[in-house]
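User: Please predict the structure of the protein below. I'd like the answer in structure-token form so I can feed it into my own downstream comparison script.

Assistant: Understood. Taking the following sequence of 276 residues as input:
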Amino acid sequence: MNKKAMWSIAVKDMKAITSNIQIWLPMLIVPFILGIVVPSALIITARAFDLTVVGNTEVIVNVIQDLPEGTLKQTLESLPSLNHQLVYFFILYGFTPFFMLIPAMASSVISANSFVGEKERKTLESLLFAPISMKTIFIGKILSAFIPAVIVTFITAILYGVVTNFIAYPMFDRIIFPNWGWVILIVWITPFLSLLVILFNVIISAKVKGYQEAYQLGGIIVLPIVGLIVSQLTGLLFLSHTVLILIGFILLFLNIILLQVASKWNDRFRLSEQQI
């Protein structure tokens, strides 16, 4: 494998991202809204008003009351008001699935443009028949999406922690973020999730004819994450540390399967028949 060529492909694609507003704008707007705007609005509202009056919080209150005995329930019960409980629960647990959505959407937007983007830019033919292996091309394409998605997720998590701690500090008189669940999420789950979405989209991108088609089909993989968000906020599935670790292993297993599928496309002539 030609590492120099691999990194050249990755760097070229990452530079192409910055010149395409259709790619980088959604990749920045979604993390900004989910990681900054929504949690900030929640905490500011909680500091000024009673959340039970402002909105329909019965479902979340029931989730908190039905939590199993343990450290989390004891911590919530020790807080001085329901507003404190709601803010603490949302910041440390309720918004957890959103940080699965961020790397998934960022990875999907970038990787859907992998091979299809080359076709639309009229550069696919020269790439396929360049004197480099298909393995080098595939890894370069994967890195070009994986690196930006992980960086965006990590930066958003840091900003999320800074903003939420700053705004919530007057309520709690201490720093409440992060906990071990967030460490597991950011370090263990998001890289595997990003890779899974990228592999899925690279395979799709290698088969379809246009970016919009690749992006729409690739978006299917976001649906299970939306299900996790609903499950977490309704109490159907609580993303405890154990559950998060298990999700990471499931993602690892799925990545191994998709790598096997992607390896079947390491044939430049088969790929050229699909795209050219």
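That's the full token string. The chain has a mean pLDDT of 80.
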